[in-house]
Amino acid sequence: MVILRNIVARISQSVGLLVVVASFALGQSPESWPLQPGIYFPQAPLPGKWRKSVGAVFTTTPPELTEEVRVSVPAVDFNIQRGLTKHLFLASRFQTQFVQSNLGLGLRWATPLTNRLFLSAGYDVTGWLGALQIKDVFASEAYGVETFPSISMGYKLTRDLRLTVKSEAIIDLYYRSQVGNLAVVYNRRAINGFAFTFILEQPFYNQRHVSVGIRAAYSNFNWQLWSLYDTFDRNLFYPQLIFGFIL
Q1: Considering only CA atoms, which of 78, 74, 8 is closest in space to residue 39?
Q2: What is the CA radius of gyration of the chain?
Q3: How far apart are CA 37 and CA 56, in angstroms?
Q4: CA-based nearest residue to 199, from 157, 141, 235
Q5: Total-model pTM
Q6: pLDDT tens string 156-190
């Protein structure tokens, strides 16, 4: 009986040790989780390191502009980031639809609040340009400059899954459009609207990560639709679908 009790005690100790080890592995501290590739998550790259992604952004036209026709306008989307310090990094973004393009450069500061919760603040300046030739009738072109002060909150849902919520103010600095000899210019600084972005970043295949999410912009103007020359002096809703491969 004594031998049997000793065997049972040893088995119980071994099982208890396995349970503790398994619990630690499953509930591993986020501090020990590796730095995952990410473009939107508010965590700075290591100093001197690059982060890159390529994908597409699909913008749906508001019914106020196109009435019954709802068009989803795709734009090729490139992102490049470089770590400067432990908390500071550069972020650049290039979007193009060939007849119009947008190039942005910004500075971000990011810091962890807890083991799972991260915060960043940023300021981006973008310049856009578009040109359109309608047969031999007329040619139109436009370009402008906008800025986007932003705040992002990120949360590590699991070891490999990151959720980011980003809020932006959209500020116009300059706008110029021209059709033939007729030109319209605005150079006053004005808040054009705001936007909220919700992004999930996770592994996809073969150690490749992706960014998937939506951006909801409520603004008076959208650079991708400049050629429609809307006459609405009010904010419209511009939903966007974002998808990118993190390189």
Answers
A1: 78
A2: 24
A3: 18
A4: 157
A5: 0.81
A6: 999 889 999 999 999 999 998 888 778 888 887 78
Q: How many CB atoms lie within 10 A of CB 70?
A: 10
Residue type, 38: G
DSSP string, 169-223: EEEEEEEEEEETTEEEEE---EEEEEEEEEEEEEEEETTEEEEEEEEEEEES--G
Task: Give yes or no for residue 99 having a pLDDT over 90.
Answer: no
The alpha helices in the chain, defined as continuous H runs, are 2-26, 63-66
| Closest to 52 in 3D by CA, of 93, 101, 103, 88 | 93
Q: Can you read off the two tokens belonging to residue 61? A: 């036209």
Task: Give CA–CA dist 68/223, Å, rounded.
Answer: 21
- For residue 187, the Cα-to-chain-centroid distance in whole angstroms is 28
* Residues in the chain, total: 247
Residue that is written with structure tokens 């473009």 in the block: 39
- DSSP reduced 3-state for 32: helix
For residue 4, the one-letter residue type is: L
Tokens of 104: 């942005």
> What is the helix (H) or strand (E) element at residue 81, kind and residue range?
strand 72-83
